[in-house]
Amino acid sequence: MSNGNMNLTLKVWRQQDSKTAGKFVTYKAEHISPDMSFLEMLDVVNESIMLKGEEPIYFDHDCREGICGMCSLYINGRPHGPKRAITTCQLHMRSFKDGQTITIEPWRAAAFPVIKDLAVDRSAFDRIQQAGGYISINTGGVPDANEIPIPKVIADEAFNSATCIGCGACVAACKNASAMLFVSAKVSQLGMLPQGQTERYSRVQSMVAQMDEEGFGNCTNTGACEAECPKEITLTNIARMNNDFFSAKFFREAHANDIAE
Amino acid sequence: MSEFKQTFNSSLGKKLIMALTGLFLCTFLIVHLSGNLSLFNHDHGYAFNAYANFMTHFPPIRVVSYLLYLSIIVHSVYALILTINNRKARPVSYASGNDSPQSWSAKNMGILGSILLVFIVIHMKDFWFKYHQEDFSENAEYVIPYKEYKKDLVSGELLSARDLPPGKYNYAVFTEGNVETMIAKDLYQTVEIAFKQWWYVLFYVVALGALSFHLLHGFQSSFRTLGWVHRRYNGIIYQIGVWLFAIIIPLGFAAMPVVYYLTR
Lengths: 261, 264
Prior knowledge:
The complex is a heterodimer.
Chain A: E1 6-14, E2 23-32, H1 38-51, E3 74-75, E4 78-79, E5 101-105, E6 114-116, E7 119-120, H2 123-130, H3 152-162, H4 169-173, H5 180-191, H6 200-213, H7 224-228, H8 236-250
Parallel strand pairs in A: 1-5
Antiparallel strand pairs in A: 1-2, 3-4, 3-5, 6-7
Helix pairs in contact in A: 2-6, 3-5, 5-6, 5-8, 6-8
Chain B: H1 3-9, H2 11-36, H3 46-57, H4 59-89, H5 104-107, H6 109-132, E1 146-152, E2 158-163, E3 172-176, E4 179-185, H7 187-194, H8 198-226, H9 231-262
Antiparallel strand pairs in B: 1-2, 1-4, 3-4
Helix pairs in contact in B: 1-2, 2-4, 2-8, 2-9, 4-6, 6-8, 8-9
């Protein structure tokens, strides 16, 4: 099955479920091809584990094309491994040295409880989205394309924010386990567009309230999130969200932006 | 929960308090440094002692000073609350540490801030507290003596500076002909004595190094927290944070103990 020439030592976090305490278990990854992705390497290791009749390492993955946001893994002190602007599935074994020891941990955050081994529950992000990360529209006929003029720079900037895949690397990288980069990207992608104006100020308040409720930390503008984001979401989003939030709280009439309670 | 409470209990609200108190403390640094530059005048502390009296007796400045003490307390308390929250947000830490590219000063704001708090307490005990002592009894522990200056108003020349014998005095300025006499508490002497000790000078230099890194991150970060997003001004804010608050101000303050120590 595997015919490469790399031999690695893996220190993998194994945890039965969120209730039980976990620990590191060491595995040998042998004959690994440098052209494999990190997840393919784990598949190979899992095969050998299963052949021994043991339970394979659980980890999240789906599209393996870097766009779904499902894969995670905190590899040697960095979310999604040592390379910039990629997800773990796009990380290749050539980024490591033969004989290297690789430590693999799940995202660590109170708001992301471990489901099993390396898989964490990221439904806190879903609940933040459900709190206001949408635009309410009446259904009806398909609107004409380009009916609403949007300046190119605004469209581009909104699109940049919209590229967030919600993987949670920002939370994992943040020294405070803060979700500000994720939330601000979701607030920005809608708040910048004309269609998002109606709910702009209620949205930011509801989403921030939900973010706090989920138990994420507080932002210190440290910038690790921006550096680790596989989609290169910028810190500017955070400042933009703060702007909308304080604008809603201090400079706008309450009835115009009341949170639906 | 009232709207107001809700706002300030949110994570963003707490950060807003950090940003506003932090920026207020930054503005104080400018005032403090510009006043203290009079330490470099070779006038036996004439300008410095006059400035110290002005800062402690001019009513508007007294009001601002209470706001300043409050800011220091609020900034520290909120820093503690936020740090505890942040610890709670990650109950299990990473075994492999954190190698993400990030600003060193941002990562160490808590440690840098703690050094500064210790510094502020010691600094205020040694100067502010001593200066505010009004105990003139014989066995009073901290008594700052008074000094009498005579200055020629025509030439601006300092005619004499005389230490007054221990006793009860009040700050006074009066003019006889062309000669102005000022009687003021000689805080300058306290400064001279303090900066003669090498370990005290070293402590100041270390604390001001901490101030530099604290403000290198803190100044620009506070604007991000306030929600200031403007391509045109972000660069300017960054430059002010680096040059004025992380380089010029800490260097200016650090120069005082160092120069006094070397030229004693």
